[in-house]
Amino acid sequence: MKTVPFDGRQTNHLAQQPFGQVPYLADGDLQLFESGACLLHLAEKSDKLMPTDTEGRAQTIQWMMASLNSIEMVSVAWWFLNISGEPDNNLSGWMEKRLAQLEDVLSDREWLVANRFTVADLLLADVLRVPQVRELGNRPASERYVARVTNRPAFVKAFADQIAHFKQADEARS
Ligand SMILES: N[C@@H](CCC(=O)N[C@@H](CS)C(=O)NCC(=O)O)C(=O)O
């Protein structure tokens, strides 16, 4: 894992990511940007992250797209308005509706696809685990789902490694 310094990234980082954003993934000679594309690439390497049968694979990709295009598309804009001092913005109703629809889905299943953890769960839980999103309304099934994914040892380790990496990078800068 490498850290991209925030300062200067709009010019220094464009060769990796045309919008100057993170994440990006280097896998050998292959360079990829967009978190969905990076996750899909990694998931295709192992059936632990994505079923290999046609139906399971298609449904995993479907829920990855839904996480990014139907949930995160609303939640990031809503979150941004919130932290910019507009908590009662026009996106709140849309956000509440999407989260309520998702709560219905998550009320009768533990995992999105194939009755087991897939990369789609990793992506959806990452979209849902944002504190402001979790605090909007009361959605017990969604809360249990986020905890189910983020309590997995692999998630706990990856998160701890990432925080340690950021801490080290901050110390190196100061
Ligand atoms: N659609 C992109 C969004 C990436 C994104 O928004 N990254 C944020 C950090 S989580 C970022 O780099 N923000 C800085 C900026 O947009 O200038 C993806 O999923 O990779």
Automatic annotation (TrEMBL):
Q: Which residues form the GST N-terminal domain?
A: 1-50
Keyword Transferase assigned: yes
| Signal peptide range | none
InterPro entries noted in UniProt: Glutathione-S-Trfase_C-like, Glutathione-S-Trfase_C_sf, Glutathione_S-Trfase, Glutathione_S-Trfase_N, GST_C, Thioredoxin-like_sf
- Indicate whether Transferase appears among the record's keywords: yes
Name the Pfam families for this protein: GST_C (PF00043), GST_N (PF02798)
Q: Which GO terms describe its molecular function?
A: transferase activity
Domain named GST C-terminal: which ranges?
53-174
Print the keywords alphabetically.
Transferase
- What PANTHER family does the database record attribute to this sequence? GLUTATHIONE S-TRANSFERASE GSTA, GLUTATHIONE S-TRANSFERASE-RELATED
Family statement drawn from the similarity comment of this UniProt entry? Belongs to the GST superfamily.
Supply the name of the protein.
Glutathione S-transferase domain-containing protein
Which classification does the entry list for the species?
Answer: Bacteria, Pseudomonadati, Pseudomonadota, Gammaproteobacteria, Chromatiales
